[in-house]
Amino acid sequence: MNRLLTITIAALFLAQTLALVQAQDENEQTIVDVADGTGSHDTLVAALSHVGLVETLNSEGPFTVFAPTDQAFSDAGVNLDDYDTDAENETLKDILLYHVISGVAVDAANVTDGMTAEAANTDTLTFTVTDGTVTIGEATVTTADVEASNGIIHVIDKILLPPADEPVVEEPVDNCDVTIGVGESGYVYDQVSVTINVGETVCWKWTDSDMPHNVAEIAEIGSNERLAGGVYSGAAAATVDFSYTFTENTTFYYACEPHITMGMKGEIIVGTGIDASKASEDDKESESTPGFAAVASIVALAGAAAFLSRRE
Questions:
Q1: Which residues are within 8 A (CB) of 92 and not within 5 positions of it... i.e. 6 or more apart?
Q2: The pLDDT value given to residue 282
Q3: pLDDT of 247 higher than 70
């Protein structure tokens, strides 16, 4: 009798010891170990391995992981073979980190309707609780509070997709050294004569003006015709944003075609204001054409010759 009692006590002690060891083994399983053992998260584990996140989720944590099932990956059409470039793998990594909250193990009892949390990819997760059912976006938590040694897992039936990044809107760069608009009367530019340095840019800008205007180069300030092949902003319009960079010394004349006969003209004096090519032509003309003094000398010599011939 005593022997039977001893055997029974020993068997009970052994059973308790095995249960304790098994519990300890389970408690030592990380989030990845637990997911790998469910039989329904093989794709998740493979994806974590594919982008190098297994070591992260095997670390101390704690982490809260929303684990999509294999069916969820299949429903979303996710095929790991499609992720083979660095950019594609970064996209997959971003998706997976959107399923992780780092630094805290959040159990279902602490999730409230409207609660938000920052995911490991820095985007925001928003929770909805309806009649005890927790959803994140379109995904529903089907099994909650699966414990692991370094956190907690909640099984979900859909993949969570991070919100699209807001497009980066670059501020336009204003390279204008001088900006010319339309004067209050609508028939003049607000700056008739402007002096700039070589290499500077002049911009002509107006928005929703009462009348259409443009910028057309003319040969000289008194001209009423656009210079063929000259600087031109295009057809007159109520809104214009046109610029031109002057790279040489010159005086540039321009006009508004619709109001050219009304004197809507202007000038841009660049550097010295003297076109080098025109200056060279003027110099050549002055060299090849006798000056007034030379003509006077010739006339005087001719007169003297005539006077001497009469005396002889």
A1: 47, 50, 51, 80, 83
A2: 55
A3: yes
Q: Quote the CA–CA distance of 33 and 26 in Å, as a whole number.
A: 9
- Token digits for 111? 């999730």
For 97, 160, 168, the CA distances from 92, given in Å and listed in that order, are 9, 11, 22
Judged by average pLDDT, the poorest of 53-67, 136-150, 214-228, 292-306 is 292-306
Catalogue all structural domains in the chain, each as residue range(s) with its CATH number. 2-156 (2.30.180.10), 178-288 (2.60.40.420)
Q: Is the dihedral of CA 33, 38, 42, 45 positive or negative?
A: negative
Q: Which of 275, 58, 258 is nearest to 150 (CA)?
A: 58
> Tokens representing 288?
């090849």
pLDDT in tens, 207-242: 999 999 999 999 999 999 999 999 999 999 999 999
CA 58 and chain centroid, separation: 36
